[in-house]
Backbone:
């Protein structure tokens, strides 16, 4: 049963070819914590196939009538190939990321997806991490690379390395909204040692 703990709402953007662990782990842990979260397809169709041929039916699409990025406090970018390039090619999403950052609202990206934030100029001078294969993009775009940290929080931006760090990434989003006690409760619930 979902017990809502905050009025803030999170959007996890789902592109064809995403790494499903990186998106759905966030959704799962936020649900457990009581943080409202929608899966949002960047395609007109709500049904999206992941990089491992898993079909996800999203809550919303950015093409839906009445959809607004402003309905969300935090925008989350899962990684994956070709999921990350597909997110990067979505102009409305990229514009919303820049707008969110300019307003000081939080952003989160994992695996290859922090490279999108870097290319948009949103990581310049900030501590960040990503999948090792994309860390050069962060450096080239002026980020302070934390190559060995699984999750990095710099003010309102959360970045992480990949599928193996997805739970830690999701827990930092929980911490952002609900603090340490909620993180410990969710950790215990999923038996994360």
Residues:
């Amino acid at each position: 049963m979902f017990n809502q703990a905050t009025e803030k709402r999170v959007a996890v953007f789902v592109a064809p070819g995403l790494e499903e662990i990186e998106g759905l782990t966030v959704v799962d842990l936020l649900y457990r914590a009581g943080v409202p979260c929608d899966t949002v397809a960047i395609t007109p169709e709500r049904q999206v196939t992941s990089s491992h041929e898993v079909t996800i039916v999203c809550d919303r699409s950015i093409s839906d009538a009445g959809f607004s990025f402003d309905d969300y406090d935090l925008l989350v970018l899962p990684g994956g190939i070709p999921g990350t390039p597909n997110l990067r090619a979505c102009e409305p999403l990229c514009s919303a990321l820049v707008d969110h950052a300019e307003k000081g609202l939080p952003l989160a990206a994992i695996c290859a997806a922090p490279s999108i934030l870097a290319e948009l100029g949103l990581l310049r001078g900030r501590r960040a991490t990503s999948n090792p294969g994309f860390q050069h993009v962060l450096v080239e775009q002026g980020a302070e690379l934390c190559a060995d940290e699984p999750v990095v929080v710099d003010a309102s931006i959360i970045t992480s390395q990949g599928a193996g760090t997805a739970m830690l990434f999701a827990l930092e989003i929980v911490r952002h909204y609900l603090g340490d006690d909620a993180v410990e409760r969710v950790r215990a619930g999923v038996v994360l040692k």
